[in-house]
């Protein structure tokens, strides 16, 4: 008998029943955000209740302003209504919420792990495509649509096709100045924007084992940019010490019981994956995206690729269209690209380690273009302030904001102006993602800070050598 | 949900690779109610309309010959990116009943299913052929038969497609999934009892 993968071990324990080849999967914990308002409305319209309000958690993030602590400052009454709906729905349905003004409020994918809501061995969902982030702790977490959110609210289950499995192994050691963000961009470049479709990804190998929890959360944030809804890392001592003592994590005897179970979760040595991908950790360098798909990533030391070297006619046309939209030319050095603005934040890179890494570059330097730092949660913000990071940023001329999704998606009004170019630590460089006609380049927090203080994409390793 | 059995309608080719749901409906419209007047205009809004609201002439949906189209023939990785179901609401608002593509974003694929839109995965070269035919003959019709699992192009050539039996059953019957699952209430309760023994550490 062959062994089981981490994914299979968890999936199997959550099968309620099967029908026409699909599985009714039980969901342990459900995260909601301000954008989930439609799903609650649907429930209300149908006169349905919630099955497990005790295992549902909610916090506003997408519509949250980051420049003011008062909802009254929101211009659009509709946005005000949506932001306020979190508290209304939480009260009516009896859900735990970290609402407006609560220190624990923040981006749902930062708050879940931070509060100990995210735990190994669980099934978790959220009406957001970056829900895979939570898989960094060794659980099955995936993004769903709004109808599915209603379905989970009402039944605590979902009908699912069993995905195939893919293991991405990264051995070796990451070089100086190379971060988890560079790793995930290198992976997406390699397997493409759809290479993971229909698959659950497990990251393995020594370079992954060596990552901190923050780093693992970053690489598990972006599998959807490679088509996959799932990203996971096997739980280990790094995981357990991160979780221990967090508010919603098990305590005392229950903690011991959970630990015993969690230690059985890692994929067995003889477990088989449908697809195996290998990458050398040593070869990864700081990355920058140039186009409108996260797969359009290059190393900062490279020149932009030539569409003429593509044999696939449609891919060639897509590249030409991206060059046109981004106002760039093939063959240009990455370091000659000059962003207008820098955004450090989003569920990809707004945790304490991300802010520390950006602050290390900003320290003692001055931003030459506008730069904003948006912590992932009120608690990350408080910790950064306790460590004096806010001072480093503000002394360097960076704008220090309140927690939320902010310019990652611009729904709260934090947007680029048409035609503006950003260096952004978020996860999507789609056309118009950061505002109509905006141009986004995805980078790590350190690379974003380097762009802020030099005015162009700069190999951050050069800036770090002297410090 | 509207059932899907057989359908025939004008096709429109969308030649965008990795067409993400941010293109299908930009984020700033997600706060709008799908019942709002003019919701249909949000489909591909920023590709379709200039800043002053005028139509961008060379975007295909602005070509009068494709205006009543109800079937989209797309490129690889259609509907990737954000899980926003609004990307389906806005297709529905424009009378789209099916999207045929070589591959889909998994979440968008599932979202289509919830609103009676048939997502069809077809071989890439077949999608290329169909798109070319629609470029050559604007307004040409595409026929879909879910029971038989076929797509028929303007030239009468048919292509078989695969669909999960669960999804097929749901679409053919216009099933209300929540209603169906509530019918499994006893199974869920049983499961919860077992699960509580298994995952006792999870209870608050
Ligand atoms: S930070 Fe960006 S990607 Fe993350 S949940 Fe918010 S909008 Fe989505």
Summarize the structure.
Chain A is of the alpha/beta class. Chain A has 16 helices and 19 strands. Chain A is globular.
Task: Characterize the structure shown.
The complex is a heterodimer of chains A (467) and B (204). With 467 residues, chain A is an alpha/beta fold. Helices cover 32% and strands 17% of the residues of chain A. In chain B, 32% of the residues lie in helices and 15% in strands. Chain B contains 8 helices and 7 strands. Chain B starts with 5 loop residues before the first strand and ends in a 6-residue tail after the last helix. In chain B, 44% of the residues are buried. The interface between A and B is large, with 76 and 56 residues. Bound molecules: iron/sulfur cluster. Residues 61-62, 107, 109, 128, 130, 346-347, 405, 408-409, 426-427 of chain A line the site of iron/sulfur cluster. Iron/sulfur cluster binds at residues 61-62, 107, 109, 128, 130, 346-347, 405, 408-409, 426-427 of chain A.
Topology:
The complex is a heterodimer of chains A (467) and B (204).
Chain A (H helix, E strand, L loop, with lengths): L5 H7 L2 E5 L2 E5 L2 E5 L3 H9 L10 E4 L17 H17 L2 E2 L10 H8 L7 E4 L13 E4 L2 H10 L1 E4 L3 E8 L8 H12 L7 E6 L1 H4 L3 H9 L8 E4 L3 H7 L8 H11 L12 E6 L6 E3 L7 E3 L13 H14 L14 E4 L7 H11 L8 E3 L4 H9 L2 H7 L3 E2 L20 E4 L14 E4 L2 H10 L5 H6 L2
Parallel strand pairs in A: 3-4, 3-6, 4-5, 6-7, 9-10, 9-12, 10-11, 15-16, 15-18, 16-17, 18-19
Antiparallel strand pairs in A: 1-2, 2-8, 13-14
Helix pairs in contact in A: 2-5, 6-8, 12-14, 12-15
Chain B lengths: L5 E8 L7 H4 L20 H4 L22 E3 L12 H8 L4 E4 L4 H8 L4 E4 L2 H13 L4 E5 L4 E3 L5 E3 L4 H9 L3 H6 L2 H14 L6
The complex binds iron/sulfur cluster.
The site of iron/sulfur cluster has 13 residues of chain A, from loops.
């Amino acid at each position: 008998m062959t062994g089981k993968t981490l994914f299979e071990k968890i999936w199997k324990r959550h099968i309620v029943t099967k029908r026409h080849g699909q599985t009714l999967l039980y969901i342990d914990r459900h995260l909601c955000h301000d954008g989930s308002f439609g799903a609650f409305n649907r429930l209300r319209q149908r006169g349905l209740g919630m099955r497990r309000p005790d295992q549902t958690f909610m916090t506003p993030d997408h519509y949250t302003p980051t420049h003011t602590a008062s909802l009254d400052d929101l211009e659009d009454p509709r946005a005000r209504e949506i932001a306020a709906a979190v508290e209304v729905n939480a009260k009516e349905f009896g859900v735990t919420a970290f609402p407006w003004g609560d220190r624990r409020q923040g981006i749902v994918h930062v708050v879940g792990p931070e509060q100990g809501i995210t735990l190994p061995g669980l099934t978790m969902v959220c009406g957001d495509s970056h829900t895979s982030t939570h898989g960094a702790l060794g659980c099955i977490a995936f993004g769903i649509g709004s109808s599915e959110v209603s379905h989970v609210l009402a039944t605590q289950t979902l009908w699912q096709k069993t995905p195939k499995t893919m293991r991405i192994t990264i051995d070796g050691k990451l070089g100086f100045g190379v971060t988890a963000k560079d790793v995930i961009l290198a992976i997406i470049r390699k397997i493409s924007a759809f290479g993971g479709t229909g698959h659950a990804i497990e990251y393995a190998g020594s370079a992954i084992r060596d990552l901190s929890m923050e780093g693992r959360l970053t690489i598990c944030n972006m599998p959807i940019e490679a088509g996959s809804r799932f990203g996971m890392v096997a739980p280990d001592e790094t995981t357990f010490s991160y979780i221990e003592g967090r508010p919603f994590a098990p305590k005392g005897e229950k903690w011991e019981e959970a630990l015993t179970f969690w230690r059985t979760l890692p994929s067995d040595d003889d477990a088989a994956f449908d697809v195996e991908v290998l990458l050398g950790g040593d070869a990864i360098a700081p990355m920058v995206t140039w186009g409108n798909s996260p797969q359009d990533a290059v190393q900062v030391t490279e020149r932009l690729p030539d569409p003429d070297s593509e044999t696939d006619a449609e891919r060639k046309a897509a590249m030409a269209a991206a060059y046109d939209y981004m106002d760039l030319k093939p063959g240009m050095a990455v370091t000659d690209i000059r962003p207008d603005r820098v955004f450090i934040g989003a569920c990809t890179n707004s945790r304490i380690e991300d802010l520390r890494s950006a602050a290390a570059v900003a320290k003692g330097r001055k931003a030459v273009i506008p730069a904003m730092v948006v912590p992932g949660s009120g608690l990350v913000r408080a910790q950064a302030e306790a460590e004096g990071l806010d001072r480093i940023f503000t002394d360097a001329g960076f704008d220090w904001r309140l927690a939320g999704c902010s310019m990652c998606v611009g729904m709260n009004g934090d947007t680029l102006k048409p035609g503006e170019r950003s260096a952004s630590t978020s996860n999507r460089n789609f056309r118009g993602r950061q505002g109509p006609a905006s141009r986004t380049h995805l980078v790590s927090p350190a690379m974003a800070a380097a762009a802020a203080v030099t005015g162009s994409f700069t190999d951050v390793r050069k800036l770090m050598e002297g410090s | 949900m509207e059932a899907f059995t057989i359908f025939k309608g004008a096709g429109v080719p969308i030649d965008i690779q990795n067409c993400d749901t941010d293109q299908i409906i930009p984020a700033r419209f997600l706060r709008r109610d799908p019942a709002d007047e003019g919701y249909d205009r949000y489909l591909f809004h920023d590709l379709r309309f200039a800043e002053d609201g005028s139509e961008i002439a060379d975007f295909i949906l602005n070509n009068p010959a494709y205006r009543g189209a109800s079937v989209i023939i797309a490129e690889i990785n259609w509907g990737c990116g954000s899980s926003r179901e609004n990307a389906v609401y806005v297709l529905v608002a424009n009378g789209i009943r099916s999207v045929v593509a070589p591959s889909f974003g998994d979440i968008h694929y599932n979202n289509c299913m919830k609103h009676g839109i048939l997502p069809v995965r077809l071989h890439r070269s077949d999608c290329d052929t169909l798109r070319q035919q629609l470029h050559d003959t604007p307004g040409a019709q595409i026929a879909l038969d879910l029971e038989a699992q076929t797509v028929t192009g303007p030239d009468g050539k048919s292509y078989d497609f695969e669909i999960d039996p669960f999804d097929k059953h749901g679409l053919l019957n216009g099933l209300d999934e929540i209603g169906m699952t509530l019918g499994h209430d006893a199974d869920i309760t049983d499961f919860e009892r077992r699960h509580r023994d298994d995952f006792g550490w999870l209870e608050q």
